[in-house]
Protein backbone atom coordinates (compact mmCIF):
# COMPACT_ATOMS: atom_id res chain seq x y z
CA UNK A 1 0.00 0.00 0.00
CA UNK A 2 1.25 3.45 -0.86
CA UNK A 3 2.13 5.77 2.04
CA UNK A 4 -0.27 8.53 3.02
CA UNK A 5 0.79 12.00 1.90
CA UNK A 6 0.70 14.39 4.86
CA UNK A 7 -1.19 17.62 4.24
CA UNK A 8 -0.57 21.08 5.70
CA UNK A 9 -3.74 21.98 7.57
CA UNK A 10 -4.64 25.33 9.16
CA UNK A 11 -7.24 25.45 11.95
CA UNK A 12 -9.31 28.53 12.75
CA UNK A 13 -11.52 28.75 15.83
CA UNK A 14 -14.27 31.35 15.54
CA UNK A 15 -15.35 32.49 18.99
CA UNK A 16 -16.02 35.62 20.97
CA UNK A 17 -15.18 33.86 24.24
CA UNK A 18 -12.55 31.15 23.74
CA UNK A 19 -8.80 31.47 24.10
CA UNK A 20 -5.99 28.92 23.60
CA UNK A 21 -6.62 27.42 27.05
CA UNK A 22 -10.39 27.00 26.60
CA UNK A 23 -10.51 26.14 22.89
CA UNK A 24 -11.34 22.44 23.20
CA UNK A 25 -12.78 22.21 19.68
CA UNK A 26 -9.68 23.62 17.98
CA UNK A 27 -7.50 21.43 20.20
CA UNK A 28 -9.54 18.34 19.24
CA UNK A 29 -9.01 19.08 15.54
CA UNK A 30 -5.27 19.66 16.01
CA UNK A 31 -4.96 16.41 17.95
CA UNK A 32 -6.85 14.43 15.33
CA UNK A 33 -5.04 15.84 12.32
CA UNK A 34 -1.59 15.38 13.84
CA UNK A 35 -2.45 11.85 15.04
CA UNK A 36 -3.47 11.08 11.45
CA UNK A 37 0.00 12.13 10.26
CA UNK A 38 -0.83 15.58 8.90
CA UNK A 39 1.01 18.81 9.73
CA UNK A 40 -0.52 21.76 11.55
CA UNK A 41 0.30 24.72 9.32
CA UNK A 42 -1.13 27.29 11.74
CA UNK A 43 -3.84 27.72 14.35
CA UNK A 44 -5.65 30.91 15.24
CA UNK A 45 -8.68 32.15 17.14
CA UNK A 46 -10.72 35.10 15.88
CA UNK A 47 -13.95 36.72 17.10
CA UNK A 48 -17.17 35.95 15.27
CA UNK A 49 -16.81 38.81 12.81
CA UNK A 50 -17.39 38.17 9.12
CA UNK A 51 -14.48 40.33 7.93
CA UNK A 52 -11.92 39.00 10.41
CA UNK A 53 -12.88 35.41 9.60
CA UNK A 54 -12.73 36.11 5.87
CA UNK A 55 -9.34 37.86 6.16
CA UNK A 56 -7.67 34.92 7.91
CA UNK A 57 -9.14 32.28 5.61
CA UNK A 58 -8.32 34.37 2.51
CA UNK A 59 -4.72 34.67 3.73
CA UNK A 60 -4.47 30.89 4.12
CA UNK A 61 -6.13 30.22 0.75
CA UNK A 62 -3.53 32.49 -0.88
CA UNK A 63 -0.66 30.67 0.89
CA UNK A 64 0.58 27.84 -1.33
CA UNK A 65 1.89 26.01 1.76
CA UNK A 66 -1.63 25.61 3.21
CA UNK A 67 -3.58 22.81 1.53
CA UNK A 68 -6.55 22.53 3.90
CA UNK A 69 -8.39 25.00 6.12
CA UNK A 70 -10.73 23.79 8.85
CA UNK A 71 -12.79 26.25 10.84
CA UNK A 72 -14.78 25.53 13.96
CA UNK A 73 -17.52 27.78 15.26
CA UNK A 74 -19.85 30.43 13.93
CA UNK A 75 -22.04 28.07 11.88
CA UNK A 76 -25.22 28.24 13.96
CA UNK A 77 -28.23 30.55 13.79
CA UNK A 78 -27.53 33.01 16.60
CA UNK A 79 -27.04 36.67 15.77
CA UNK A 80 -23.23 36.61 15.68
CA UNK A 81 -22.81 33.33 13.77
CA UNK A 82 -21.29 34.41 10.46
CA UNK A 83 -18.74 31.82 9.34
CA UNK A 84 -20.74 30.60 6.29
CA UNK A 85 -21.25 34.19 5.14
CA UNK A 86 -17.54 34.92 5.59
CA UNK A 87 -16.33 31.83 3.74
CA UNK A 88 -18.87 31.14 1.00
CA UNK A 89 -17.81 34.14 -1.12
CA UNK A 90 -14.22 32.87 -1.14
CA UNK A 91 -15.07 29.46 -2.61
CA UNK A 92 -14.57 28.57 -6.27
CA UNK A 93 -16.67 25.41 -5.84
CA UNK A 94 -18.90 24.24 -3.01
CA UNK A 95 -18.85 20.67 -1.72
CA UNK A 96 -22.61 20.24 -1.28
CA UNK A 97 -22.28 16.70 0.06
CA UNK A 98 -20.12 17.81 2.99
CA UNK A 99 -22.92 19.59 4.84
CA UNK A 100 -25.40 16.89 3.89
CA UNK A 101 -23.18 14.08 5.19
CA UNK A 102 -22.28 16.01 8.34
CA UNK A 103 -25.94 16.57 9.20
CA UNK A 104 -26.69 12.91 8.52
CA UNK A 105 -23.97 11.80 10.96
CA UNK A 106 -24.80 14.50 13.47
CA UNK A 107 -28.48 13.63 13.40
CA UNK A 108 -27.64 10.23 14.83
CA UNK A 109 -26.08 12.04 17.81
CA UNK A 110 -28.22 15.14 18.40
CA UNK A 111 -31.42 14.45 16.48
CA UNK A 112 -33.32 17.25 14.77
CA UNK A 113 -31.07 19.94 16.28
CA UNK A 114 -28.62 19.14 13.49
CA UNK A 115 -30.72 21.17 11.04
CA UNK A 116 -29.34 24.31 12.69
CA UNK A 117 -25.82 23.42 11.53
CA UNK A 118 -24.75 25.50 8.55
CA UNK A 119 -21.44 23.71 8.09
CA UNK A 120 -20.03 23.81 4.59
CA UNK A 121 -17.10 22.77 2.48
CA UNK A 122 -15.53 23.98 -0.72
CA UNK A 123 -12.49 24.44 -2.89
CA UNK A 124 -10.68 27.77 -3.29
CA UNK A 125 -7.36 28.26 -5.08
CA UNK A 126 -6.43 24.57 -4.79
CA UNK A 127 -7.20 24.63 -1.05
CA UNK A 128 -10.06 22.69 0.49
CA UNK A 129 -11.99 24.54 3.18
CA UNK A 130 -14.29 22.94 5.74
CA UNK A 131 -16.42 24.84 8.25
CA UNK A 132 -17.55 22.82 11.26
CA UNK A 133 -19.75 23.80 14.20
CA UNK A 134 -18.05 24.98 17.38
CA UNK A 135 -18.82 22.09 19.70
CA UNK A 136 -16.09 19.58 20.42
CA UNK A 137 -18.53 16.77 19.61
CA UNK A 138 -19.27 18.26 16.20
CA UNK A 139 -15.54 18.53 15.47
CA UNK A 140 -15.07 14.88 16.39
CA UNK A 141 -18.04 13.92 14.20
CA UNK A 142 -16.75 15.94 11.25
CA UNK A 143 -13.21 14.64 11.50
CA UNK A 144 -13.94 11.02 12.37
CA UNK A 145 -16.91 10.62 10.03
CA UNK A 146 -15.72 12.57 6.97
CA UNK A 147 -12.41 14.40 7.05
CA UNK A 148 -10.17 11.56 8.26
CA UNK A 149 -10.97 9.60 5.08
CA UNK A 150 -11.33 12.51 2.67
CA UNK A 151 -7.96 13.99 3.67
CA UNK A 152 -6.21 10.61 3.37
CA UNK A 153 -4.53 10.35 -0.05
CA UNK A 154 -5.02 6.58 0.02
CA UNK A 155 -8.81 6.64 0.49
CA UNK A 156 -10.69 5.07 -2.42
CA UNK A 157 -12.54 5.53 -4.64
CA UNK A 158 -11.88 9.27 -4.25
CA UNK A 159 -10.67 11.87 -1.76
CA UNK A 160 -9.98 15.58 -1.51
CA UNK A 161 -6.32 15.10 -0.58
CA UNK A 162 -5.38 14.29 -4.16
CA UNK A 163 -6.95 17.54 -5.34
CA UNK A 164 -4.56 19.62 -3.26
CA UNK A 165 -1.35 17.58 -3.46
CA UNK A 166 0.91 19.30 -6.03
CA UNK A 167 1.20 17.31 -9.23
CA UNK A 168 -1.86 15.17 -8.62
CA UNK A 169 -4.89 17.39 -9.11
CA UNK A 170 -7.30 14.49 -9.35
CA UNK A 171 -9.63 12.44 -7.15
CA UNK A 172 -8.02 9.01 -7.25
From TrEMBL:
Keywords: Molybdenum cofactor biosynthesis. SUPFAM superfamilies: Molybdenum cofactor biosynthesis proteins. Pathway: Cofactor biosynthesis; molybdopterin biosynthesis. Residues 10-154 form the MoaB/Mog domain. The keyword RNA-binding does not apply. The keyword rRNA processing does not apply. One of its GO terms (biological process) is Mo-molybdopterin cofactor biosynthetic process. It comes from the Bacteria. SMART domains: MoCF_biosynth. GO terms for cellular component: cytosol. Belongs to the MoaB/Mog family. May be involved in the biosynthesis of molybdopterin. This is Molybdenum cofactor biosynthesis protein B. The lineage of its organism: Bacteria, Pseudomonadati, Pseudomonadota, Gammaproteobacteria, Oceanospirillales. The gene is moaB.
